Fold each of these.
Amino acid sequence: MSSVSTLTPTALLNQIEKPQLDLGIVALTDSAPIIMAQQLGLFTKWGLDVQLHMQNSWATLRDKLHTEKLDAVQMLAPMPMASSMGLLGPACPLLTAFNLSMNGNAITLSQPLMHEIKTLNHGNMPALPLNATWLANIIQQRNHSQSDKPLTFAVVYPYSCHHYQLRDWLGSAGIDVERDVNIVIIPPTQMTKALADNTIDGFCVGAPWNTKAVRDGIGCTVITSCDIWNESPEKVLAVTQSWQCANPNTFLALIAALQEACEWLAFPPNRFETAIKLSQPEYLNEKLENVAPALLDSCLTSLDNTARNIPAYLRFYTHQANYPTLDQGHALLVDMQRAGQIPQNLSDLQLKQWVERIYRPDLYQQMRQIQQQAASM
Amino acid sequence: MSQLSQSVPVLNVLIIDDNSARVAAVQNALTGTAYNIQHLASTKSSLLKEVESSNADIIILDMESPNRDTIESLSVISNYNPKPVVMFSTQDNPALLQESISAGVSSYIAGQIDPLRVKFILDVAVARFNEFQELKQELRDTKEKLSSRKWVDQAKALLIEKQGITEQEAYTAIRKMAMENGEKMEVVAKNLVSMAKLLAGGR
């Protein structure tokens, strides 16, 4: 095998193993790097003919990747771990070498729950980001009266940062997630409806769903993932390990194109143009006024309250956002273990061994070297 | 075939689908069998509640349905009684699909609804699901036994080392303690090990 690290950009372009790619995404605001790479012709520039395939569920996206119906996919950051460890079905070793986005999630509470909180606070809106103690108080009250059902929160997938961020926020006020609340899985497209008809009391999701709930007047966004966690990868690009072995140059070209799209997204004036593209029917099919705010670092809170400025609400490039570190992978596995999703008896060393198989910063660095050569040509 | 349907009790099938022609085709295919069809539109926000409270024995939904994550999550929620899941798929390669079978999914109905095949697919799905549940229970039992033995072995080793007694004596001591306290040997052994760690200044 020839050493890939010495590959020149021209040599890479001449040695693409599989130029035609099927790429799977779930249409969300943080699909921006993939959608804009397509729109800006960056895949073509790197010798790739990419077809985007919108998926309605993470489970189906995952199954199609496992069976190589899709070559590469956008995944929730914990999903490559879940697949590789076989947490839901047969194990399929995946790898990631590229963070598509950081941050971007938020928790929105229903109007009735918000009303209860305001009542506790003498009719006033409490300070945001909301301290989860308000919820702990409500849970305590309800336990005393024994009349109400437990608070129910929704996330989109069990192996998601949304899920762990929600757990951490509730846990910060001493709420026992297993005992005191219900956590259910609802597809993002049905989230706002479930909140409106009180099937759920709140949710933790990504853009544009929090903004939509606020604009529709059915919820109040009380805290963002930036307030709960300090920077973490949200979506990653994943392929099967066997696919990367068979198509090493194609893989490098693919992440090189995505890297350029992310760099383009770092320039603030490009964010609004991105919002316009994303809102179109073939992608999010959502109003521009619901898509744009998060891309412009704005977190709407509620119809009668001011928006919050969240720096790097959606980070695509700055602070080396795309470089996948082993520490990031390890932190995710620890979250999964704390949520009881992977065996408690896996030692820290074993977790690190899993990360080393799934997280490949070395491939990211190879891509950067090739890109730097291309820039100096 | 008819013998089988007479011998099995009625099984409730919950179809979550917006394609009414397809629902009707399945309904037709299952007329006169032990399968009783209930239909649910996929866009209901209370879907989860209705699935949980339904007395469905089998769930059918489309592979491309946005509700897949919800249905799949039911198999990771511990207080939910798992059910076999069958998926409609337009994919033409059922062998490939079968390979990818994920948690709780027992089978696929690929391509056109073939009335002769639908019942067979459901029969196989139920049989396969039951087999899988039994395997899972066996695995749980084995794991429990192993974990219990692991603790007792550790406690025995501790006693042998600290008290200078034989393995048989150590075992007898742990069993006696368990009987006196009305506890499982595993619990007593765990306590012994943690106590020793505590005294040694460990975690």
Amino acid sequence: MPSSHSGDINFIAIWMFLIFVTVTLCITLWAARKTRSTNSFYTAGGNITGFQNGLAISGDFMSAASFLGISGLVFLSGFDGLIYSIGFLVGWPIILLLIAEPLRNLGKYGFSDVVSFRLNEKPVRILAAFGSLSTVVLYLIAQMVGAGKLIEILFGLPYITAEIIVGILMILYVTFGGMLATTWVQIIKAILLLFGATLIAFLVLNKFQFSFNQFFNMAVATHQNGIGIMAPGGLISDPVSAISLGLALMFGTAGLPHILMRFFTVSDAKQARRSVAFATGFIGYFYILTFIIGFGAIILVSNNPAYLSEGGIIRGNNNMAAIHLAHAVGGDVLLGFISAVAFATILAVVSGLTLAGASAISHDLYANVLNKGADDKSQMKISKYASVGLGIFAIILGIIFEKQNVAYMVGLAFAIAASTNFPILLLSIYWKKITTRGVLTGGSAGLITCILLVILGPIVWVEILNNKNAIFPYKYPALFSMSVTFIGIWFFSITDNSLQAKKERKLFNSQYMRSQIGKNITGILSK
Amino acid sequence: MSKQALLNKVVKTKQRIIRPLLFFTIAPYFTFIFVIAFYPQYFSNLILDSSVSTGIILGLLLIILIWVITLLYVYLTNKYVEPIIQEIDSA
């Protein structure tokens, strides 16, 4: 709450937020007039440029959780924060090299189009929709709970009011403006966030005449762990966790449905390629900024009584480090600006998630499974109902989970994305022998393994359910659940000798060529 | 060249670009993670007499490497793959 510094509400924050809402609602009105078909609803008409899409993708990735969470982690333990940043970033070359172009060339609205390209559409789409929806809902809960808490602190609004405001605005953006509005909200927010974070980092370094040596020396001298903040701490201690976390971070990104759907908003594979290159640039730059911000907070926040509560602990929690630092270097104006940007960030990210969820419901479950051959008008109607429904669902879940520790949910979302969505997408693009049976058995086995291992693991089983010992000893399940998926798909595909399987393998060559070139080349291939 | 031959050429060229770049993404990243898990003390070494550790320098270099890989991929694909696809279009 801005009141934590001056004793009254920070009106700058509120004004800036109101301006953001007004501008984005105007964009939504404009977008609503252009969004008349299902295609424009989910792909913005395919008219977004590579640069714009790069900004929007980086916006999806630079959530309030990653801005405040990673700078908070750096503030708390220094070097360990960098491990997460690098893990999140390294997923991008994987997407670029393996996924982005084939996805754009084969699909229409989402990755399920690619997986069901030559396989039995109905069951495969149901599995893909399940994978998408579980990832989206878990991510959504984490964002909604984080949002409510943050807005409570920054704007002094009651938790439930905050949930309802976020929910209603997100429903408005998505239902009326579809992908076009969601993309522009994300682009504006990405620019504001990059600008704000750059400004904080600049002001911090300015205090040290841009001498990194002096800057780091000061941080080491201030932090209670001293030189320990420059070295790996306790984040990863055993090799299994190391590989497991590494896998989830690296391959999870390539299975996030709200990220994957952005590749359909550009005109072709060439623009998809450019999008990733720009996105990687922005995201990497952003993580370097959060690193500077975290260290800056060690120096300027951790021993300034204005930001500490009675016991000498930082007000709010570690995630507030960046917010306090904004006040320390830029006063009420910068604090207000950053608060408004954090609010905007939450709105933009939950909108993207809702849109991805609506696509799984209306495009996969409704138009291709329940009511095959549904016309565009009814599909559009279902999309809007799904968006409103997901929005209300998100508000309710946000309220239910208020008192829960939901930090593990983002980890779980990444683990599911890495162990279900990513393997079925990767193998259906590149592996000739994959069959419907393999995808269904391997994919659902991986999904179930992943959820079970998280429930039986130390965070849920011990910390939340209060059992004494975890049945599954590791925090990160990805190594095991990914193995189950890959082995399951491999085994149940190669042993599949059905007629259907033979047909599916025969279609591989033309699918593969199309994934590489982006055109239907049936006329070109002679055999 | 026949269309079939051009198609094969696209696939071959792409593989030649993608494979080494994939290797230089995955290998350094997992080396980084493994050093943290097994030899954390190696990353605690300070550089010269500053407060900056090897771990931080290598971490930042990894971010730069990731940038270089994405830019290199876009550059190489536009230079070597796109012209073949254009040729397929006009053939």
